[in-house]
């Protein structure tokens, strides 16, 4: 009689025969693609041991989708090397909503290449190949992959913590562990037809990929993110459990493309990224600057109403300031290179907080002054790699409505509540009213645990305060282990836009480290000198990024109070130009931003152009309107209201702007 073992499956104890695999436990459920065994993701072919705790992972779960997509990336690489035998393999990790794979090929891939590769992938998938895991030594891997220079380079990274190889995005999917493994693609005859260095796991058979995949686009990508290295060709793809899921994603992708702020920014003449200035450094055109100034005026007044004092600080300082703050020891990679002034090193600032600390420290402080709140529109600069820059949503120039509150420990919970109310009110005013909270804490046991400063007690106290306030809000709270800043935990507000995408917006951070590093003190009621707590908060986060998100959220159709042009006047004929000019003057006198179309175009074309302009209110005037002292409204949804007296029209527009209506 074969020996038996005991395993724990989805919370219940089961006795199974020795040699049972994870797949045997879930053979009747095709949605199970891998298993979590002892907390680690494993192939369904993994042989169980006595005492194993086994959980099924469905293809619809985040981890299951990642495995499906990584398996699809392997199929893509196999198809590429079938079609282009000289292609050298880079890395092919799963990413949000899909996957990519990098290749060293003689010529860039074309759209026709992608179509051919998709057909080849479908043949591979339909053939029902299996993914077989094989452990190899370093020398065996080098011998087997001798013709793959990039894989050989990865072998040398084996066992390194994943956060020490950020320059090779996705490297952890191949060599993140202590043991090298190769996954063979095996056909139905049992023959190995292809293989790749990989940690796994993978779906048990290519048939599970089905027809819910598609190759999306190609791009150039430097190996290890450095322009000094070879330029590879990256193919992006996506994979979903079903063809219906794929169609839904492609529809969302098309809608996202229609809303792309980079495209709309050019069409609406809001901003641009001149090559002469440099990547990630936007310039705002007049209309974009109006939008930006409207946002700044709003948040300026909100800060003043909330008890903040406005300050300004330089764009650079001596390097020593950022050693004191901890940015250079812990955040040097994110800062711009040093500038030399006759032997004195300077740094362009990546954060405003060190200089706010100096303002606080410029004189003695009393407990009677606390909370002491500073804010500024501070532009900081981050050394982002060119490959990750994306329009306004990932830039090198970041203008923050940056604030710092200096409080006693006892005041900290109340101040965080105050800031969270501020933030949520701001998001609602800008039409972002679907959100949840994320609590970012330090990495307690992982690779990054040494990248955080402060004692266990300080972190526990700060985290507890943030968590308490977050839970009091009644909002959904999601954990983000390891996502804290080096100096303290934070709450971030994650807002969903009009098509359901999530964006990190405002942040509130509890900092017990910088006050200590800068020697900040206040005189307590008992006469002792005490150290304040510092609360960082950025309501927009980044004005540039916020504008990018809003542009996509509204598809360029900003509500009246934000729209760069709030009213567009269109005369039916030239005879009515002067009448509409008079109407425009009344609107301008009421603080409304107005433009007139006085071009030589015929009226039907003017209306077509006006409809494309995304202006909230189009005012039309012809003979009947002029004779009645009225105008006709045309709204963005195509509806129209005729013969509205001018005074009523002005009042309607002014009220819509004043009330921040979302039309």
From TrEMBL:
Its EC number is 6.1.1.3. The keyword Phosphoprotein does not apply. It is an enzyme of class 6 (ligase). PANTHER family: THREONINE--TRNA LIGASE, CHLOROPLASTIC_MITOCHONDRIAL 2 (PTHR11451:SF44), THREONINE-TRNA LIGASE (PTHR11451). Residues 251-559 form the Aminoacyl-transfer RNA synthetases class-II family profile domain. One of its GO terms (cellular component) is cytoplasm. Binds 1 zinc ion per subunit. Homodimer. It catalyses: tRNA(Thr) + L-threonine + ATP = L-threonyl-tRNA(Thr) + AMP + diphosphate + H(+). The gene is thrS. Gene3D superfamilies: 3.30.54.20, Anticodon-binding domain, Bira Bifunctional Protein, Domain 2, Threonyl-trna Synthetase, Chain A, domain 2. Residues 1-58 form the TGS domain. This is Threonine--tRNA ligase. Belongs to the class-II aminoacyl-tRNA synthetase family. GO terms for biological process: threonyl-tRNA aminoacylation. It comes from Ornithinimicrobium humiphilum. It is found in: Cytoplasm. Keywords: Aminoacyl-tRNA synthetase, ATP-binding, Cytoplasm, Ligase, Metal-binding, Nucleotide-binding, Protein biosynthesis, RNA-binding, tRNA-binding, Zinc. GO terms for molecular function: ATP binding; metal ion binding; threonine-tRNA ligase activity; tRNA binding. Zn(2+) binds at residues 353, 404, 536. Its cofactor is Zn(2+). Its main location: cytoplasm.
């Amino acid at each position: 009689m074969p020996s038996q073992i005991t395993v724990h499956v989805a919370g219940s104890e089961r006795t199974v025969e020795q040699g049972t695999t994870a797949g045997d436990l879930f053979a009747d459920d095709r949605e199970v693609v891998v298993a979590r065994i002892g907390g680690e993701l494993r192939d369904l072919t993994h042989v169980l041991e006595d005492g194993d705790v086994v959980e099924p992972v469905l293809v619809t779960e985040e981890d299951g989708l990642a495995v499906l997509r990584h398996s699809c990336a392997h199929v893509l690489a196999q198809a590429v090397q079938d079609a282009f035998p000289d292609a050298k393999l880079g890395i092919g990790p799963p990413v949000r909503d899909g996957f990519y794979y990098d290749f060293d090929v003689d010529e860039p891939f074309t759209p026709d290449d992608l179509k051919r590769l998709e057909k080849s992938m479908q043949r591979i998938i339909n053939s029902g190949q299996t993914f077989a895991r094989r452990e190899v030594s370093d020398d065996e891997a080098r011998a087997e992959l001798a013709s793959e220079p990039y894989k050989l380079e990865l072998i040398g990274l084996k066992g390194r913590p994943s956060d020490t190889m950020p320059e090779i995005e996705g490297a952890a999917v191949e060599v993140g562990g202590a043991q090298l493994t190769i996954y063979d693609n095996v056909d139905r005859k049992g023959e190995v037809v292809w293989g790749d260095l990989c940690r796994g796991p993978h779906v048990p058979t290519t048939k599970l990929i089905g027809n819910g995949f598609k190759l999306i686009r190609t791009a150039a990508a430097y190996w290890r993110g450095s322009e000094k290295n070879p330029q590879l060709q990256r193919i992006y793809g996506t994979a979903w459990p079903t063809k219906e899921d794929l169609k839904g994603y492609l529809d969302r992708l098309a809608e996202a493309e229609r809303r792309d702020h980079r495209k709309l920014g050019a069409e609406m003449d809001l901003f641009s990224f001149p090559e002469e200035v440099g990547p990630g450094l936007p310039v705002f055109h007049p209309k974009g600057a109006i939008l930006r100034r409207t946002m700044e005026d709003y948040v300026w007044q909100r800060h003043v109403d909330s008890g903040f004092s406005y300050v300004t600080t330089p764009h650079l300082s001596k390097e020593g300031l950022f050693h004191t703050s901890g940015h250079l020891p812990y955040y040097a990679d994110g800062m711009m290179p040093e500038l030399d002034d006759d032997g004195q090193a300077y740094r362009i600032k990546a954060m405003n907080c060190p200089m706010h600390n100096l303002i606080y420290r410029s004189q003695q402080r009393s407990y009677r002054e606390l909370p002491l709140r500073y804010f500024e529109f501070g532009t900081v600069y981050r050394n982002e790699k060119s490959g990750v820059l994306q329009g306004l949503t990932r830039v090198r120039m970041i203008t923050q409505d940056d604030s710092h509150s200096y409080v006693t420990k006892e005041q900290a919970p109340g101040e965080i509540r105050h800031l969270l109310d501020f933030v949520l009110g701001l998001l609602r005013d800008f039409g972002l009213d679907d959100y949840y909270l994320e609590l970012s804490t330090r990495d307690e046991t992982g690779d990054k645990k040494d990248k955080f400063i402060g004692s266990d007690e300080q972190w526990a106290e700060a985290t507890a305060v943030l968590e308490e306030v977050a839970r009091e809000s009644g909002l959904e709270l999601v954990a983000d282990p390891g996502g804290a800043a080096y100096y303290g935990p934070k709450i971030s507000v994650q807002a969903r836009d009009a098509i359901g995408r999530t964006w990190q917006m405002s942040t509130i951070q509890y900092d017990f480290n910088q006050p200590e590093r800068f020697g900040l003190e206040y005189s307590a009621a008992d006469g002792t000198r005490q150290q304040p707590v510092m609360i960082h908060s950025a309501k927009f986060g980044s004005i540039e990024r916020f504008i990018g998100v809003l542009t996509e959220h509204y598809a360029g159709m900003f509500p009246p109070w934000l729209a760069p042009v709030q009213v567009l006047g269109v005369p039916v004929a030239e005879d009515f130009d002067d009448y509409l000019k008079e109407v425009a003057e009344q609107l301008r006198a009421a603080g409304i931003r107005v433009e007139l179309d006085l071009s030589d175009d015929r009226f039907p074309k003017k209306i077509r152009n006006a409809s494309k302009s995304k202006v909230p209110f189009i005012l039309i005037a012809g003979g009947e309107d002029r004779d009645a002292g009225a105008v006709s409204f045309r709204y963005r949804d195509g509806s129209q209201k005729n013969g509205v007296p001018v005074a009523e029209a002005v009042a309607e527009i002014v009220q819509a702007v004043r009330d921040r209506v979302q039309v």
